[in-house]
């Protein structure tokens, strides 16, 4: 791109790169599903600086208002900025104090608009977002990508999870999953992700949202077993691999 | 010689603490033909009297659909009413674009009131000359609001504005305690009777009134003329003065007592009459 002289001298040749050209600190997959009483969501606490596993205690699932839970993969700082603006949105919504409130459906649509608007400015929020919630007995689970692509489903997963966890969820998910079975299914997904996604770390949280509200678990680790023969010589059946 | 010195622009106070131009704009509401609103827990009904300007013209529309869950009935300057309806429609559609859900009625009414208030505090503007009855349904139930040119707004169980609305108000005041549990059809009936009260001897016909309904499971819509005529016939409420005729119907110009009660809430001193028109 051509820069005029003034910009070059004032700000240097990169003066017009005041937007995320690529993400810096990123989180990996988020997995979530509907269960009997609401929504369960799982995400590990790792954050990578490029491909370096740089941070180990980053919370990537947060409550937004009374009825919603937001999980994010991708650029952590963009997620933090989104949370800040959502908190303000919820604050202004509460200030009406009129018995109306933004539910998960409303927030999901709002996020869709924000994400698509930012991509149109060529300044995207570099995230895949998962929004789950319960309001008036209605369960809601949806996803938004950095381009504003959005959908609802009974179970969703971002990033690597979309490839590795969704097939497991399709097999194991059913309408009235109990809390215990839901957590088991999520852990099954997270374990596969831990084995096969190099950015995943073995420190995760599970968040739950029901009509009663949001609870995010303490961080914990999964039991792993690295002795599978496929792990001993991973390239054995892969022609041309080193 | 005795010209009112304090009514030449909206922002000038009178020593008695009144804003005459604002009060005049509220008079404009009383000039318009009557509009009536009443609600139950689940439904809101709007009704209005349609008066043609001349023998040769048709009447102007006084009830507007804003969105599936909100509608308004206006009294006063129809042109101003249409401008405000358009504003309300655009606010609803923008909210729906952002949140994919209907705009809460009370919030729209506050925005509308704020818009009207600005006109009472800018020297280069004039207040709107229209009163709006806003009917709507949201998460917190059915609502009826009255929006005044002064920038005030009130929530009501039942209300009437416009010329000879005092007669309708008297009827509604006697009956409103039953409205909360009324069925939709009973609300429509009461609305029609209230309309009839404002007619002063004229026969109630579907050609001179409009009725609209919004409620649970029922998007805001204006009842078509045939339906209204059928209801009038079914309820047998054609006659001019039966039942509530015991109360002397207040003539149009002398709406003072009850309007004054409303005026008190709206900041005008209660001890004074309506804004002096002898200018």
TrEMBL record, chain A:
<dbReference type="InterPro" id="IPR001353">
    <property type="entry name" value="Proteasome_sua/b"/>
</dbReference>
<dbReference type="GO" id="GO:0005634">
    <property type="term" value="C:nucleus"/>
</dbReference>
<dbReference type="GO" id="GO:0005737">
    <property type="term" value="C:cytoplasm"/>
</dbReference>
<keyword id="KW-0647">Proteasome</keyword>
<dbReference type="InterPro" id="IPR023333">
    <property type="entry name" value="Proteasome_suB-type"/>
</dbReference>
<dbReference type="InterPro" id="IPR016050">
    <property type="entry name" value="Proteasome_bsu_CS"/>
</dbReference>
<protein>
    <recommendedName>
        <fullName>Proteasome subunit beta</fullName>
    </recommendedName>
</protein>
<comment type="function">
    <text>Non-catalytic component of the proteasome.</text>
</comment>
<dbReference type="InterPro" id="IPR029055">
    <property type="entry name" value="Ntn_hydrolases_N"/>
</dbReference>
<dbReference type="InterPro" id="IPR050115">
    <property type="entry name" value="Proteasome_alpha"/>
</dbReference>
<dbReference type="GO" id="GO:0019774">
    <property type="term" value="C:proteasome core complex, beta-subunit complex"/>
</dbReference>
<keyword id="KW-0963">Cytoplasm</keyword>
<comment type="subunit">
    <text>Component of the 20S core complex of the 26S proteasome. The 26S proteasome is composed of a core protease (CP), known as the 20S proteasome, capped at one or both ends by the 19S regulatory particle (RP/PA700). The 20S proteasome core is composed of 28 subunits that are arranged in four stacked rings, resulting in a barrel-shaped structure. The two end rings are each formed by seven alpha subunits, and the two central rings are each formed by seven beta subunits. The catalytic chamber with the active sites is on the inside of the barrel.</text>
</comment>
<keyword id="KW-0539">Nucleus</keyword>
<dbReference type="GO" id="GO:0051603">
    <property type="term" value="P:proteolysis involved in protein catabolic process"/>
</dbReference>
<dbReference type="InterPro" id="IPR016295">
    <property type="entry name" value="Proteasome_beta4"/>
</dbReference>
<comment type="similarity">
    <text>Belongs to the peptidase T1B family.</text>
</comment>
<dbReference type="Pfam" id="PF00227">
    <property type="entry name" value="Proteasome"/>
</dbReference>
Automatic annotation (TrEMBL), chain B:
<protein>
    <recommendedName>
        <fullName>Proteasome subunit alpha type</fullName>
    </recommendedName>
</protein>
<keyword id="KW-0963">Cytoplasm</keyword>
<keyword id="KW-0647">Proteasome</keyword>
<dbReference type="GO" id="GO:0019773">
    <property type="term" value="C:proteasome core complex, alpha-subunit complex"/>
</dbReference>
<dbReference type="InterPro" id="IPR035144">
    <property type="entry name" value="Proteasome_alpha1"/>
</dbReference>
<dbReference type="GO" id="GO:0005737">
    <property type="term" value="C:cytoplasm"/>
</dbReference>
<feature type="region of interest" description="Disordered">
    <location>
        <begin position="242"/>
        <end position="279"/>
    </location>
</feature>
<feature type="domain" description="Proteasome alpha-type subunits">
    <location>
        <begin position="6"/>
        <end position="28"/>
    </location>
</feature>
<dbReference type="GO" id="GO:0006511">
    <property type="term" value="P:ubiquitin-dependent protein catabolic process"/>
</dbReference>
<dbReference type="InterPro" id="IPR023332">
    <property type="entry name" value="Proteasome_alpha-type"/>
</dbReference>
<feature type="compositionally biased region" description="Low complexity">
    <location>
        <begin position="242"/>
        <end position="273"/>
    </location>
</feature>
<dbReference type="Pfam" id="PF10584">
    <property type="entry name" value="Proteasome_A_N"/>
</dbReference>
<comment type="subunit">
    <text>Component of the 20S core complex of the 26S proteasome. The 26S proteasome is composed of a core protease (CP), known as the 20S proteasome, capped at one or both ends by the 19S regulatory particle (RP/PA700). The 20S proteasome core is composed of 28 subunits that are arranged in four stacked rings, resulting in a barrel-shaped structure. The two end rings are each formed by seven alpha subunits, and the two central rings are each formed by seven beta subunits. The catalytic chamber with the active sites is on the inside of the barrel.</text>
</comment>
<dbReference type="InterPro" id="IPR001353">
    <property type="entry name" value="Proteasome_sua/b"/>
</dbReference>
<dbReference type="InterPro" id="IPR000426">
    <property type="entry name" value="Proteasome_asu_N"/>
</dbReference>
<dbReference type="GO" id="GO:0005634">
    <property type="term" value="C:nucleus"/>
</dbReference>
<comment type="similarity">
    <text>Belongs to the peptidase T1A family.</text>
</comment>
<keyword id="KW-0539">Nucleus</keyword>
<dbReference type="Pfam" id="PF00227">
    <property type="entry name" value="Proteasome"/>
</dbReference>
<comment type="function">
    <text>The proteasome is a multicatalytic proteinase complex which is characterized by its ability to cleave peptides with Arg, Phe, Tyr, Leu, and Glu adjacent to the leaving group at neutral or slightly basic pH.</text>
</comment>
<dbReference type="InterPro" id="IPR029055">
    <property type="entry name" value="Ntn_hydrolases_N"/>
</dbReference>
<dbReference type="InterPro" id="IPR050115">
    <property type="entry name" value="Proteasome_alpha"/>
</dbReference>
């Amino acid at each position: 791109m051509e820069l005029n002289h003034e910009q070059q001298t004032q700000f240097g040749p990169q003066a017009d790169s005041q937007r995320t050209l690529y993400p810096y600190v990123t989180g990996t997959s988020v997995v979530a599903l509907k269960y009997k009483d609401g929504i369960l969501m799982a995400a590990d606490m790792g954050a990578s600086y490029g491909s370096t596993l740089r941070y180990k205690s980053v919370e990537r699932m947060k409550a937004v208002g009374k009825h919603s839970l937001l999980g994010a993969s991708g650029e952590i700082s963009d997620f933090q900025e989104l949370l800040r603006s959502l908190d303000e949105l919820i604050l202004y919504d509460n200030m009406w104090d009129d018995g109306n409130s933004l539910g998960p459906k409303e927030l999901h649509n709002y996020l869709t608009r924000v994400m698509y608007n930012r991509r149109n400015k060529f300044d995207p929020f570099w995230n895949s977002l998962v929004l789950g919630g319960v309001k008036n007995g209605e369960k809601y689970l949806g996803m938004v990508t950095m381009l504003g692509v959005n959908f609802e489903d009974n179970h969703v997963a971002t990033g690597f999870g979309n490839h590795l966890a969704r097939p497991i969820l399709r097999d194991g998910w059913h309408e009235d999953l109990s809390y215990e079975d839901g957590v088991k299914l999520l852990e099954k997904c997270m374990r596969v992700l831990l084995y096969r996604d190099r950015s995943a770390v073995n420190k995760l949280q599970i968040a739950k949202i029901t009509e009663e509200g949001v609870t995010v678990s303490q961080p914990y680790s999964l039991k792993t077993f690295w002795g599978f023969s496929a792990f001993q010589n991973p390239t054995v059946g892969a022609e041309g691999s080193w | 010689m005795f010209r009112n010195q304090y009514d030449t622009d909206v922002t000038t106070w009178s020593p008695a603490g009144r804003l005459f131009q604002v009060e005049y704009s509220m008079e404009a509401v009383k000039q318009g033909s009557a509009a009536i609103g009443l609600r139950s827990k689940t439904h809101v009904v709007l009704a209005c009297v349609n008066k043609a300007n001349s023998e040769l013209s048709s009447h102007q529309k006084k009830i507007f659909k804003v969105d599936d869950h909100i509608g308004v009935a206006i009294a006063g300057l129809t042109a101003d009413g249409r401008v405000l309806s358009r504003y309300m429609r655009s606010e609803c559609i923008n909210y729906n674009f952002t949140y994919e859900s209907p705009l809460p009625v009370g919030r729209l009414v506050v925005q509308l009131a704020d818009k009207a208030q600005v006109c009472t505090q800018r020297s280069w503007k004039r207040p709107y000359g229209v009163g709006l009855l806003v009917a709507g349904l949201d998460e917190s139930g059915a609502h009826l609001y009255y929006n005044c040119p002064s920038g005030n707004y009130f929530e009501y169980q039942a209300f009437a504005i416009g010329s000879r609305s005092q007669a309708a108000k008297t009827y509604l005041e006697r009956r409103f305690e039953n409205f909360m549990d009324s069925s939709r059809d009973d609300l429509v009936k009461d609305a029609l009777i209230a309309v009839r009260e404002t007619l002063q001897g004229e026969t109630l016909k579907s050609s001179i009134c409009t009725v609209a309904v919004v409620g649970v499971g029922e998007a805001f819509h204006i009842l078509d003329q045939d339906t209204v005529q059928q209801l009038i016939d079914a309820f047998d409420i054609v006659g001019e003065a039966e039942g509530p005729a015991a109360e002397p119907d207040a003539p149009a110009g002398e709406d003072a007592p009850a309007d004054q009660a409303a005026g008190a809430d709206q900041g005008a001193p209660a001890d004074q009459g309506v804004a002096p028109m002898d200018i």
